[in-house]
Amino acid sequence: MMAEDIQHNQKANFNGLTKSAKSGASKKLTIKNFKDRPELTDSYTEDTWIKLRDAVSAIQNSTSIKYNLEELYQAVENLCSYKVSPVLYKQLRQVCEDHIQAQIHQFREYPSSSLDSLSFLKRMNRCWQDHCSQTIMIRSIFLFLDRTYILQNSLLPSIWDTGLELFRTHIVSDGAVQSRTVEGILEQIERERNGETVDRSLLRSLLGMLSDLQVYKDSFEQRFLTETNRLYAAEGQRLMQERDVPEYLHHVSRRLEEENDRVISYLDQSTQKPLIATVEKQLLGEHMNAILQKGLWMLLDENRVCELTLLYELLSKVKGGLMTLLQAWRDYIKSFGGEIVSSPEKDKELVQELLDFKDKMDHVTQRCFQRNDNFINAMKEAFENFINKRPNKPAELIAKYVDSKLRAGNKEATEEELERILDKIMIIFRFIHGKDVFEAFYKKDLAKRLLVGKSASVDAEKSMLSKLKHECGAAFTSKLEGMFKDMELSKDIMIQFKQVCCYQHTVLMSSAWFPSYMMLGTDMVKLQEVCKLFYLGKHSGRKLQWQPTLGHAVLKTEFKEGKKELQVSLFQTLVLLMFNESDEYSVEEIRTATGIEDGELKRTLQSLACGKARVLNKMPRGKDVEDADRFHFNSDFTHKLFRIKINQIQMKETVEEQVSTTERVFQDRQYQIDAALVRIMKMRKTLSHNLLVSELYNQLKFPVKPADLKKRIESLIDRDYMERDKENPNQYHYVA
């Protein structure tokens, strides 16, 4: 129990006692005025003081007091009234000082064995507790003196403060006693840190004593912090070698909790800040880089959310901790993401891996890093950095990934899930510099989806366009939006064309585009010519171009089971129509009759004879089509549906097609660079090379190598759009 607590509890009891003493004395002595007081004589004064001194001695020796407490209080009041307060105060102080001086011997003569340190502390605590209770008792008797004479003299300490001063001067300030007391307290704290159970109430009382005596900081706190620094410096070095990072982080957290608990339990509140700073410095600050190098990547790889949260919380307490963590976090994202992007053998999974990685990093920033804006921005910078280390390819693969999600037959996601996937793709899309590469491949794939009717959802297509428009502006999506308008116009034209076909009693195809080099049947050639004349009649001055791979038809077919309608591609149509003339053909015969290219022909025959809907039989059986195979019409074909769609086996995009698309992008870039150069020079008239390049980079929306820019400048000089200064070759002039 601290001195303040003892003082408060006992003061309450004795205040009541002194009040009753006052009232009792007034009734007994009936002192109404100065004349009623006892006559002041040397004999009276001396007798009264002897009585008071005996009472004080009895209190100090814990024996019974011979006199009534009310009588003692009245005696003090009488002496004070007769102006002997200075003498009374001096005598009281001397008695108390003599008693305290006598107490020091029990501590000086105490055995110095380390085994007796705890009993020494207990004796010191008992002495302190007794002193506090005795001082409060004495003050209660001399309360009138304390509240009049002492209170009126600002240079005199109160009776309570006098007791503290005497205890500090004669006991605690003794070098040997203070040293042994402090060492004993430090020993008990060290034992507790090592896992032993100690008497916390004893420590709380002794440290409260040092605090009340105003020697806490000088005698205890400095030594305590030095020992704490030494202990945790050694512990940090040892545990960083012995334990892995997650275990070490939990140990640091536990140590900090223990030290905070010590402050609450027995240390002075003023010690908390330097104490916690010492622990954080030795366990975290000194090993911050080692912790991150040894464990951050492992924690992120294994998605250790709990430990990552703890790491963030701990490093946020250390100066420069979060900045160091931020840099390590950025380096991890660049390294891990760079491995995803720079591995051509993983191109098929690249976009999905990027999306998963982004989700994982988002989860870490939200759950572990408290949505810290600095960490979010660092993540964005890192993603932008590693994605663009492999120019153009990520943009191409993202476009193909979108195509796979928007294509009909994708049953992986509902409309809501598809919308969420598109939103995530747009986040990755923002990091790409070469957005024109994405546009080229996306436009090519969109054309296929629209022309073949393979789009999963018009709403999803328009939603994606809306996202692209919001991200890149209306100019970016104008051509894509025009494709949808063309499809609407095409539907109207086909409705009108069907009406013409019906009038001529030839309803063979719902929508078909034929190549000029194919060997079509008579009816199909007629229909192609009718379609051509119909279109050119409505749109004069245009050229009608046929796309063979995108045409499809509906054929009415009779099987033993009954009539069926087959929805097939143009190539499938040409092959199936041959079986109106004969029941069996060889591969060579079909090739000769249709003129279909060899690879396309084999894929077509595979779709008709080896797929789910086998309207043709292949001999011999097998999945692959060989030149020696023969095919005959399967009249026994059955199916539960009346209209059956037979999917053409799609040929994967060839390397040549990819190169062609990429080359178109590069060609478009050259035009944009030339236009930007001319625009800048026309406005500025004269510019140095460095300023021209700088302004050009500000205007272009795609990455360009300096060597490529130099080539475009040379090209414009050759074409007389600009010229070099005759005296300074690094300066250009616009040629009007």
Automatic annotation (TrEMBL):
SMART domains: CULLIN, Cullin_Nedd8
SUPFAM superfamilies (UniProt xref): Cullin homology domain, Cullin repeat-like, Winged helix' DNA-binding domain
GO molecular function term, any single one: ubiquitin protein ligase binding
Pathway recorded for this protein: Protein modification; protein ubiquitination
GO terms (BP aspect): cellular response to UV; DNA repair; proteasome-mediated ubiquitin-dependent protein catabolic process; protein ubiquitination; regulation of protein metabolic process; rhythmic process; ribosome biogenesis
Pfam families associated with the record: Cullin, Cullin_AB, Cullin_Nedd8
InterPro entries tied to this protein: Cullin, Cullin-like_AB, Cullin_CS, Cullin_homology, Cullin_homology_sf, Cullin_N, Cullin_neddylation_domain, Cullin_repeat-like_dom_sf
Cellular component GO terms, alphabetical: Cul4A-RING E3 ubiquitin ligase complex
Keyword Ubl conjugation: yes
Gene3D superfamilies on file: Cullin Repeats, Cullin, Chain C, Domain 2, Winged helix-like DNA-binding domain superfamily/Winged helix DNA-binding domain
The entry's keywords: Biological rhythms, DNA damage, DNA repair, Host-virus interaction, Isopeptide bond, Phosphoprotein, Ubl conjugation, Ubl conjugation pathway
Location of the Cullin family profile domain: 393-609
Recorded family membership: Belongs to the cullin family.
Name by which UniProt lists this protein: Cullin-4A
